[in-house]
Amino acid sequence: MSFQVFGFPVSRGVAIGRAVLVASSRVDVAHYFIEAQQIETEVQRLRSARDAVASELHGLQRDMPADAPPELSALLDVHLMLLHDDALTGATGSWVRDRHYNAEWALSAQLEVVARQFDEMENDYLRERKADLEQVVEQLLRALAQQRGRATPAHAVNPRDFAGEDPLVLVASDISPADMLQFKRSIFTGFVTDVGGRTSHTAIVARSLDIPAVVGAREASRLVRQDDWVVIDGDAGVVIVDPSPIVLEEYRFRQRQGGLERERLTRLRHTPAVTLDGQRVELLANIELPGDTKAALEAGAVGVGLFRSEFLFMNRNGDLPGEDEQYEAYRAVVEAMRGLPVTIRTVDIGADKALDRMSVHELRHEHALNPALGLRAIRWSLSEPSMFRQQLRAILRASAHGQVRLLVPMVAHASEIRGTFDALARAKQQLQESGRAYTDVPVGAMIEVPAAALMAHVFLDQFDFLSLGTNDLIQYTLAIDRADEAVAHLYDPWHPAVLELVSRTISVGRARGKQVSVCGEMAGDPAFTEALLGMGLRSFSMHPAQVATVKQQVLRADTRRLASRDAAVVP
């Protein structure tokens, strides 16, 4: 039966396909597809995990004190029964063999199936056994994680060979940044998540892939079943499950129209971004991995305005990249951009992007009371001086191969500025002592908190340029968690306070003769192009998929008219 689910539209267009579910879990689960020759290895991992958990449970029963309550022994019996029930561990192997899911994904997928069966039971006692099932699965996932620590990770592949001809859409409670790196290389034509807002990480990546997405859809992952036909309306924020033939045909027509529009915009790729009154505007690309440079160049970007280096640190099971590995990645980007400028942001770890380990602090973002206000970005880097200098040396070394600029995230205090430049000076000294080549790179600060925006004139005494990270700036100005769908309706880029901070920062930079760019989602939203041009912005950095649309707005704009108009609008 057809039904609709509503959420926030975060990436435009229409996607139609069969649902692939990613179940939620309190234990971190890696989701990726495996090759055919890896199937038996993954199935054996499931068996080994089951045997390990069974041995642990038997050990608990054996060592149980004589005065232990009988209910405890009975509970362990229930867990053992669930562990060996073919509906759980046996059926999980089918996900591996038929869908080519890795073991962890297969287990969480089967948990979702069995958990729904428990929810539908009329008997209260049996229905409450769902909690026991979840505990058993968490034990299995932890056992798999321990195996992974001792083994070489399976190679993630494209699932087209076994998925058939039907397009696929991804439906999940949430998608972690690490999982997004895996799915980014996959064939999903759209995303739906229960949680998140317009600037949550899932939304940002969906826009970078130029695929439709709806987030904050609440119960979508519970209501949608595996293989359901799903329509994702990324313009209206609607998800239609099992649509009627008439509705399906209407959306297929809209898909074709959208494809024609994108094809028309690609013709602007080599057209210089110059306004009607002759103002040249710099349109740069935001990238996450070295391979993204191809999309940046194909989109007509004139450089990389933001290379999010933290994605080199993810999905590594705690084995973080060393200096040489980072250097090779940065050099690959610099060389691939063929002499165009590349701005590399130092690692922005914390909040919605946590490492597999948070070094000596053993801090993971989900354990913090408010991760957005905790140890993240430059705060974390300065707390790890050895790792920070290692990254700085790698970036400096890459600067010998082309135009490199260094960008520091979330700076707010004078002590952070001093600490950053002290670390940079020490990194340069170490390179000189070892005889390795580097150049003096321009150093910029990200303006992401109101304190930094208000002190932009002071920052420019030290920094060569500024980059407005509007996603976080809006979040901190309005005290809104941008990933929380419960307050996402209050996340307002048009709020007068936000516009005032953005305009003020741009004006200060122009007065000092130093470049100010916007690299947040506001830069790639064509609804804001005229407003930002009117404020005096001449450097935009966005996902490659958004360059053509923004360029079209630039080509139609007259900045003299916009400047006078915006002077009356911005407080």
Task: Describe the protein.
This protein is α/β, with parallel strands linked by helices. The chain folds into 3 domains: 3-24 and 159-264, Phosphohistidine domain (Glucose Oxidase, domain 1), CATH 3.50.30; 36-150, Orthogonal Bundle (Enzyme I, Chain A, domain 2), CATH 1.10.274; 277-569, Alpha-Beta Barrel (TIM Barrel). Helix content is 48%, strand content 13%. The protein contains 24 helices and 16 strands. It has helices at 39-62, 70-84, 86-99, 103-119, 124-128, 130-150, 160-163, 177-184, 201-209, 220-223, 245-265, 293-298, 323-336, 377-383, 385-398, 414-434, 450-454, 456-459, 470-478, 496-512, 521-524, 526-535, 547-555, 559-569; strands spanning 3-6, 8-11, 14-22, 168-172, 188-193, 213-215, 229-233, 238-241, 282-287, 304-308, 342-345, 404-408, 443-447, 465-468, 516-518, 539-542. An 8-stranded mixed beta sheet has the order 1-8-7-3-4-5-6-2. The protein has an 8-stranded parallel beta sheet with strand order 15-14-13-12-11-10-9-16. Helix 1 packs antiparallel against helix 3 (86-99) and helix 2 packs across helix 6 (130-150). It starts with a strand and ends with a helix. Residues 150-162 and 357-367 have low confidence and may be disordered.
